Amino acid sequence: MKMSKINISFCINDNHCLYVFFTISMIKKYTTNLDIFVLHTDLSDKSKDRLKTLVTESVNIHFVTIDRDLFSNLPLTLDGITIETYYRYLLPEILVDCDKVIYLDSDLLIRCDVTELWDIDVSQHYLAGVNEIDIINRFPDHKLKLGFDLDELFINAGVLVCNLQKMRQDKITHHLFTETERLKDIILFQDQDVINLALKGKIAELPLAYNYTVEAMEKDLLGLDEIKIIHYNSSGAKPWKHYQFQELPLNKYLKLWQVDFVKNIKQIQQTKVSLLLPIYHETSLTTIENICKQSYKNIQLILLNYNTDINIQVPDVCSHYPLDEEKVDILNVDPASPLGLDLLKLVKGQYLISLNHIDELDDSFIETALNSAEQYQSDIVLLENCDFNENDGNYYFHANLFKEETVTAETVKKHFQTFPRHKTYLTNPYCKLFKTSYVRDNNIDLANDLIPKSYETDKISYVKETLYVYRKIKEELISVIVPVYNVENYLHECLDSILNQTYQNLEIILVNDGSTDSSGKICDDYAAKDGRIMVIHQENGGLSDARNKGLDAMTGQFVTFVDSDDYLGNHCIETLYIHAKTCQADIAIGKYIEFEEDNKLFVFPNSQNSVNKIELLTGEQCLEKCHRYFSFIAVTAWAKLYRANLFNDNSPYKSIRYPVDVLHEDQYTTHKLFFKSQKNIFVDEYLYVYRRRENSITKTQLSEKRIMDEIKGFEEKIIDFALLNKDMTYLKEYYIYLLNQHKTYLENHQQQDCEVYEYIGKRLMTYFNWQDKP
């Protein structure tokens, strides 16, 4: 032989590359001093670079480009078999310096030193292979049709030892092409049939151990320690696919490949892409099925578990989905700890993709995004998307976000400010790929909304192909209850903000509570223009009575309250609804901005601040947040979306209504709703504008009734806590704080001789006897 190295050949395209990488890795485990020839037509640079990482001083890889047109007249008779299978015909003519070569398919598990194969004497034959036992049992008629007896040698072409010198001498390449043309109407297994027919009588038989196929696996013809090469030659038994084979022995052989794949490929390759998937409930896990279908496999999956009621374990996830445990991480999100810091500690990939658990990905989404990043050396890749609306079952496609395939930071900033669709797309973290180092260096939190500063790089590329589907969830009817009393100067702004909501399936109930100005007429005018509006006119009964009338009239599955001098951000109801549905929450709570009418200032209360975009809380945790941090938002009726059955369902507690003829009605009511709820979500987003004005109920000077009603509301809450045996630690502290605040107020206004001051004094006297009790 002219060459001292062992020659090995593969005929592949990009789809085979990862598996050939694995096969070569396994060969290297047992054998050195290799010359590997990869025959291809248009193998990508990415695939070549991947294979080149296997090159060492003793292992060379050569890429040989083949003209595909040479094979244009040859038949493809089986699904899943590509034209590259015929490229081995050319081995004698291409590898002119080689007298011998081992040809291997890509779906193999090498378990031996291939020197054993190399040393087999084929000097008197064109090639050597293992007898194809599968065809005898599965396609006996076909073997007979080709002119073979059932017990006659008919080899499987997945593992061949080829005598190239003899094949060149006898012009076997030309002979194989000619025979393929002649036999094209009768062959089934393409070039394998042709090789057996054309070279009949000149083929040596190899032991079964060197090409142990599915038929052999199912019959357990050899012991595991005897098998040299396992060949997964059936389309229904590819180990990189996910099967639920319960029966042995086939499952045993599939797992052998998978275990070695993990040990060799995934240790050699650096994880390229880390995927962030939020988990709110068990159905969120179904998105993993979509991820497993991705053409790009070298990923890390990080599950962000927002729901501590779900005990997610990595082995459980991997038992249901074809994922390696080493590539799955779970982060239980702590509401009190910033998610971004903990998240980046887990990230192993060079790139990051944040996913929404209800959206859909094209199977090529990750690979396409990664190709763009590598082509343009991008810090960020933006990808085109479309919408699927569950309400009408239609897909909605859009004009391209950008014209060019590369985008500057200035262009992104401009679109952020001027185009609503661009702002919506650029704000959310989905349908984008980020370089991990860029995220770390710029402190970008992919668990929260993005801002223009998130895009301060000119290394941004854009993929025009639509590969991501945003899912717009089905809109249930939401009742919006607006008590109205003498707010003619503010009512237009309030109602316009409701009508302009991005969420449109609304039932708007305006309860005119005996207004003496034009508020009632304004309500009627709006109702005449919009069929979603219902107006109830009544004699003045107070805010609680008006809300209760709305609750009695509502038919929606969810309900929210808006005070008639306040107004909503355009996305308020949609944001709360999406989070309530996504997290299966009973109450969704948003943040509010105070607008001070007198000085025209917007105030952002600190008590609402959260470390993460969302917090999933039980009712008791919401109340603890209220009492521990004096959180006003946890008490108010507005800036929340409630499941309607919290108010109207008699089980397990009675229907809930607001107490009539008292002020601070929320103090008497909101905690009851939280106790009745199972799960609630706090959204760290400003959605509601609360107006403080001179003549509003909350702005007027504190009267004795106002003070007493608030104290009585607290005391009713204390009784409810006690009856339900709830922890009152923070409630007690808040109560004492409230008593002292009102005591100081009355003293500053020289009102120590009033009844409520005396009442507060008596309550404070009991504090010393109460503070040590649970």
TrEMBL record:
<dbReference type="Pfam" id="PF00535">
    <property type="entry name" value="Glycos_transf_2"/>
</dbReference>
<feature type="domain" description="Glycosyltransferase 2-like">
    <location>
        <begin position="479"/>
        <end position="605"/>
    </location>
</feature>
<dbReference type="InterPro" id="IPR029044">
    <property type="entry name" value="Nucleotide-diphossugar_trans"/>
</dbReference>
<protein>
    <submittedName>
        <fullName>Glycosyltransferase</fullName>
    </submittedName>
</protein>
<dbReference type="GO" id="GO:0016757">
    <property type="term" value="F:glycosyltransferase activity"/>
</dbReference>
<keyword id="KW-0328">Glycosyltransferase</keyword>
<keyword id="KW-0808">Transferase</keyword>
<dbReference type="InterPro" id="IPR001173">
    <property type="entry name" value="Glyco_trans_2-like"/>
</dbReference>
<dbReference type="InterPro" id="IPR002495">
    <property type="entry name" value="Glyco_trans_8"/>
</dbReference>
<dbReference type="Pfam" id="PF01501">
    <property type="entry name" value="Glyco_transf_8"/>
</dbReference>
